[in-house]
């Protein structure tokens, strides 16, 4: 009895109402909902004017604010938290096969409705030793949603994952990195830790699939090369952002990981390991 795929869930659903009775939202700060409360789906949010955003909003999108509990990098130099968003898709098994060959484990931030459509692929990822985490039910900009709808987005995805792999996820990544202190508090209330990615470690690989494309394989690989130039001089490790939702993004992800496997002093791991 899941919500329709890729649609923001209805909070009047009896299951959502039951969750809302169980979850304590009393510590969630009363901060403005972004975009005037008009829900943003399938595109990155634009920032509200400074008059709307409160100094204590803690917005990642507009203030690049990260909270002390946000996971944004691995602690030690040379550690790479490898992550893929928006799956599982029909392209994911090809990536899984490649990761298995190299004995590399990653964190997959999955969309709830894609889990329902591709349960065997998710189970295969989990059974291969990968870490499974939440990327919402329908990929909205979470700061544009009311509290109850955020609960529904997260809890439906947690339920879908638990049904497939038998384990409740502990981590979530907000689509577009779009979080603030209100969204963080709701994630915390449902038992999820917020993960973003390290600044300048976004592959922008989704641009391979945009119309017209804003990236090429070469431009994405150049971005990866810049990571490899910089990681040894940083004071900590890093967490990257790639996607496994389309053949093009998976093909370039495989090229990246094949190159990365040959880089000395690089330790590739899941987010919980780092």
TrEMBL record:
Residue ranges occupied by any NodB homology domain in the UniProt entry: 78-269
Cofactor annotation: Co(2+)
Keywords: Carbohydrate metabolism, Cell membrane, Cell wall, Cell wall biogenesis/degradation, Chitin degradation, Cobalt, Glycoprotein, GPI-anchor, Hydrolase, Lipoprotein, Membrane, Metal-binding, Polysaccharide degradation, Secreted, Signal
An annotated GO BP: cell wall organization
Membrane topology designation: Lipid-anchor; GPI-anchor
UniProt record similarity statement: Belongs to the polysaccharide deacetylase family.
Protein name from the UniProt record: chitin deacetylase
Taxonomic lineage from the root: Eukaryota, Fungi, Fungi incertae sedis, Mucoromycota, Glomeromycotina
